[in-house]
Amino acid sequence: MKATFSIAALVVLISVVAGAQVASHTPTVNTTLPATVTGPTDRPVVRVNGAVLTDRDLVREMMNVFPYARQHGGKFPKDSETEIRKSALRNIEFEELAYQEAKRRGLVVLAPKLNQAVKDFRAQFDTEAEYQQYLKAEQKGSLDELRSKIRRAILIDMILKSEVENRAKLTDVQLRAFYAKNPDRFRKPDSVSIQTITIAYGDNPSAADKQKARQRAEDALKQAKATKDYEGFGRLAEKVSMDDWRVMMGDHKWLHRGRMPEAVEKVAFTMKAGQVSDTIDAGDSFVIVRVNGREDSHLVAFDEVKPRLKQDLEKQKKDELRAAFDQRLRKNAKIEEL
Q: Which structural domains are found in the chain, ordered by start?
């Protein structure tokens, strides 16, 4: 078989809005539960406006909320199982409410779309035997049952696109307006790109130990001052430095204020690119710094932040729209947890 039989993944039926409380809908047309999962018996767990959802639906959704359970025989962490179950239950309730709303509005899945979805779902199986085994285990041996589940998934996708996904899209004008109103969110602070060589002496060294570390640092400093470039300093860091950055040639990349020991920061932000500091006592070690670049605080250009900004704001809006839609659906619904 090819990975998992997720209708959402291969048929692109389901819009997964962000967050643990968003119904993925894959439980309705998903792979067989792990063989070690013996709990589900199709026992009713919730009734949504008269429609019954079972423990099999719930367990599948719990595995969507916490996918690692599939790697552990369907078992969930004891300390979080209650929350996983609560989230999954809310998800399947929402899924059913959305499905019922789609039907109430008269949404229809055209035959070509449904047929293609069924064909794509079938293509997830390597052999006809595996496919038939799945139908028997999960769809009562019925192709009609599978088609019904796939139709349901498509209808849910259609209603979510209408109520959430499409409404969450933001234009460049809206993104630029947010960017203009919130300049501090896009201002990059003073930054410095550094490499370091560290000679540690610990928190409570003896005078002799600290002097020994100082001498090692002075010896390293002479060699560091003799290096000509990034590569030379980096090779020295790999050889003599005593911190974890030595495996990265001492390279910390870009850091802004507050991201390094105060004594080191004070020196680093006075240096020019290409300069190597004297030894700096950082309180538990002697540090030698090479500055590779400096950037003053500046507003990052809109075009540079736009992709991430669009992603973040649309995710936030999807969360809000989804929560509002869920609330509207539940307002007059009759939900009985059994």
A: 7-171+315-337 (1.10.4030.10), 190-296 (3.10.50.40)
